[in-house]
Design a protein that fits this description.
Elements lengths: L1 H10 L2 E5 L4 H17 L12 H7 L2 E7 L2 E12 L2 E9 L8 H15 L4 E6 L4 H9 L3 E2 L11 E6 L16
Parallel strand pairs: 4-5
Antiparallel strand pairs: 1-2, 2-3, 3-4, 5-7, 6-7
Length: about 180
């Protein structure tokens, strides 16, 4: 019976974009930062998280997964270069792991990126986050040379997102 109940709970989850400065986003990031601090042998400084103002300035997105109206997971899409985004801070509340939430959230982040003109997604992760490494490998990501300056990264990945599902947002054309 527990398995059936777990599947029913999963079907009621929703994924949506929120303001990165919202209380909901801050709660998710605080929980994510606390978990990294506990898991990383070197610790983790919350100042290393993407700032809401940075995300807004870059034109990215903060997505959350909600169950019963409560945010249980989050992830960020951050433009990196034309046609390329970086996925950051993919986190699922420990009580909701093992149900495919992270895989669905990763797919939603990729869809958002593709819908906004990205053809490639990149991400990095720490060696102690073995479940994240496994998720990325089984989701079509390939290891690539190091990029960026994340002091906590040990693995770097990229994935070809293919063609956008809809045209990228561009400035209106002027003139004849």
């Amino acid at each position: 019976m527990e398995e059936v109940d777990g599947r029913a709970a999963v079907s009621r989850e929703t994924i949506g974009e929120v303001d990165p400065a919202s209380d909901e986003a801050r709660r998710c990031l605080a929980a994510y930062g606390a978990e990294l601090d506990a898991r990383f042998p070197e610790g983790f400084d919350p100042a290393d998280l993407v700032a809401p103002s940075e995300l807004r300035a870059e034109g990215g997105a903060f997505l959350v997964v909600r169950a019963a109206g409560w945010a249980i997971a989050c992830g960020i899409v951050r433009p990196q270069a034309p046609g390329t985004v970086e996925l950051k801070h993919l986190w699922v509340d420990p009580g909701h792991r093992g149900r495919g939430v992270a895989r669905r959230l990763l797919g939603a982040l990729e869809d958002w990126a593709r819908d906004h003109g990205a053809r490639e997604a990149r991400l990095d992760t720490h060696a102690t986050l073995r479940e994240a490494v496994g998720l990325y490998r089984t989701s079509g990501y390939r290891e690539v040379p190091a990029y960026g300056n994340n002091p906590h990264a040990h693995h770097w990945f990229a994935k070809d997102l293919g063609a956008p599902r809809r045209p990228a947002r561009t400035a209106p054309r002027r003139g004849p």
